[in-house]
């Protein structure tokens, strides 16, 4: 029996493009903004939230990290050495806490978004992603 593996080859081509972009973005974020890609995602999702704040559980669900991993990231970003986030106690439920984007966090995010856009533009200009996706869907 001869099995056609084209679908897997196309999927891996798309995955390789995404991994290349993630690696390049991680390198730029670390060098220029002292951020990991996950920390960038934290800043990004907080910037889109009402009041630029979210409960940790909400952020955990959006980003897809374990509770301990997210707590560690947020704790580091709330620390005085970083200052990109600040903890806020929930006024209607004192047990609940929010993390909120600070002005410094917004500045880091703005610069990071520019870098992300440049990396995407550069990386995607050399790859025909639409063709890869079309090829993938044609063999499925």
Provide a descriptive summary of the structure in words.
This protein has 6 helices and 3 strands; from the N terminus they run ααβααββαα. With 140 residues, the chain is mostly helical. A 3-stranded antiparallel beta sheet has the order 1-3-2. Helix 1 crosses helix 5. It is elongated and about 60 Å long.
What's the topology here?
Blueprint (H helix, E strand, L loop, with lengths): L5 H28 L3 H12 L4 E3 H8 L3 H12 L6 E5 L7 E5 L1 H22 L4 H11 L1
Antiparallel strand pairs: 1-3, 2-3
Helix pairs in contact: 1-5, 1-6, 2-5, 3-4
Keywords: DNA-binding
GO molecular function: DNA binding; DNA-binding transcription factor activity
Pfam families: MarR_2
Q: From the helix content, strand content and strand pairing, which structural class follows? A: mainly alpha
What's the average pLDDT?
A: 87
CATH architecture classification name: Orthogonal Bundle
Task: State Rg.
Answer: 19 Å
What pattern of helices and strands is seen along the backbone? HHEHHEEHH
Q: Give the number of DSSP strands.
A: 3
Query: How many helices in DSSP terms?
Result: 6
What CATH calls the topology is Arc Repressor Mutant, subunit A
Largest sheet: 3 strands, antiparallel
Helix content: 55-70%
